[in-house]
Design brief:
This protein is α/β, with parallel strands linked by helices. The chain is 34% helix and 24% strand. It has a domain of 151 residues: P-loop containing nucleotide triphosphate hydrolases (Rossmann fold), CATH 3.40.50.
Amino acid sequence: MKSGTAAGAMDALAIRDVSLVYDEDVEALRSVSLNVRSGEFVSIVGPSGCGKSSLLKLILGLERPTEGEIRLSGHVVEGPNRDVGVVFQSPVLLPWRTVLQNVLLPADVQHLDRNAAAERAAHLLQFAGLAGFEKRYPFELSGGMQQRVAIVRALIHDPQLLLMDEPFAALDAMTREQMSMELQRIWMQSRKTVVFITHSIQEAVLLSDRIAVMSARPGRLISVLEHGAPRPREIKDLAAPEMAKLAATIRDQLEIRNSE
């Protein structure tokens, strides 16, 4: 277990003493500090309304902190940044565009080289298990496949940081487990820096290098827990002593802090 937040030379993301107050009286976040190293998979876990999604908006540059600052590769985040990709709870695919056209949407918006983007899209769709579905429309895909398309779309412009806001929350339990395993495989191949927001302690324990535990509103950082279990991990590994102990620690911290 570790609760360090000191900045390092390889930090992809640095959140420093960030507080957020809405409408002068709704305190969403209080003095949150967290550093995410390049290539690291960090999950943020906390109760509903603790400010996890507010923190994501701050990282995206869609909101400005009331206090503190957020840096991406050493640069202060002051607005939307092309070096960040995002996957939401819903795939948010355009129904009139094919899989390939949906994947290429960020490339179109950012006016990237079309041929290079198409080549990268083909590669990403291949390793996401979607080769052969390029000309299909969203309604022809399962929920899990739609979310894989959303992940590929978020990676098409090769962002430095991938933000994921409860991306599997709308899926059934079996598909959710399958998608967790698929995400682990994609991450192990891409080695993108990932910040993964979830209510699921099991998802966090299965996928993460470190887990940031947040309190109820106003959201504060309770601890940052190191996770040293080797990869790849399987669903059955959640029953292993090390992983079960980590899950129990997270539950204990949430229960203790949220009962104060």
